[in-house]
What does this fold into?
Amino acid sequence: MVWQSVVNGQNLKFRLAGINNQNFIMRDEETGSWWQQISGQAIQGPLKGSELVSVETDELTFGTWKRENPNGRVLRPDAKISIENYDPNWEPQVAKMRVTTTAQLDTTLEPRTIVVGVTVDGKSKAYPFTAIEKQAPILDTVGTTPIVVVLAEDGKSVRAFSRMVDGRKLEFLKKPDTNEIVDAETASVWDFTGRAVSGELAGKQLTKITVLKDYWFDWKTYNPETQLYSLGSR
Amino acid sequence: MKIGYKSAWLLLLIAVAVAFAFIFIPVYLVQPFAPQTERALAISYFLKTWSPIVTPLLAVGVIGLVVVAWKNSKRWYSKVPLVLPIFLSFVFAWFAQQNHFEWMFNPLTSSDFAKASEVDYVKDDEMVLAVKINGDAVAYPVSLMAYHHIAQDVVGGTPITATY
It folds into this structure.
């Protein structure tokens, strides 16, 4: 998650300060308040009850990001930190770790299943990553918003968009043998950035919905009312 | 009021126990592989907020009590154990000034960036956390973020906190 740092006109400096049901707590140095990483809410201290404003963010492969942003900038490793700490293979190790949560987990999914979570109109829904791999583009409705969940050519980067364009609801399907999607209404072709690249709707941009790649138990802990997309539903 | 050797020891034990509680309770309640409750977080927050002030004050009190007990003890071997409460109260006062979560995950001390085309420390199939504001596109490699957890930056004029 990415948050705006300014709260009530004050630019806060955050430090790692603890853990709450396996999601970390940050402490701001200005007021000493504690903030929950996943929700952006102040849970203790003078700013308790305040919420950070979220910043739209993507979790993409470097290759896909670089193609879209050839002039972008990339955070460098901290020279003071031993390079071994930046282990690109940390994921399988974390996957083996114990799970503790106060959430009521159902038995449908293993707690450390990777899901892609979205929140639209105050309603949350989680899509198991394996379902996205098999079925993308996934057409669904969350709250009252029709959405589409798409997977990039790299097989790892996931984005979601609203399917409403100029008051019209679009249905998408995968263009055979490509990674592009086409809409059934106008047969326009759409790329991974949500832009129509050819056809009647060329130049139109779908509204992006921020997704969060997360463990199922973590998503469920902080979104207790979440729905879960099931693989068999299409 | 005169404090005797035994009363001084009793007060020393209380002071060390209180300092220990201020340190140990939040460490115990906010540990990685145990569930946390709202109440546990509130207690931990209170103790963590006050421990950097309370534990040094207790350490000063311990020194005072040790001086008293030292004067009131007649034999050398009843003086020697007085080293222990001093040692413990100083360890607790020191720990209260530390952020032990950052021992394992050091905070990011630098904020250097490379141009996308010049990056050789991230492979194409590695994940990045990406932000784009007002045309300023920034990628925070997940391998870095999974260690530091927090990166603060100004993107397109907006101060942001990237977390992972």
Remarks:
- The helical segments of chain A are 62-68, 90-95, 129-135, 216-222.
- DSSP finds four helices and 23 strands in chain A.
- The CA atoms of residues 53 and 129 of chain A lie 27 Å apart.
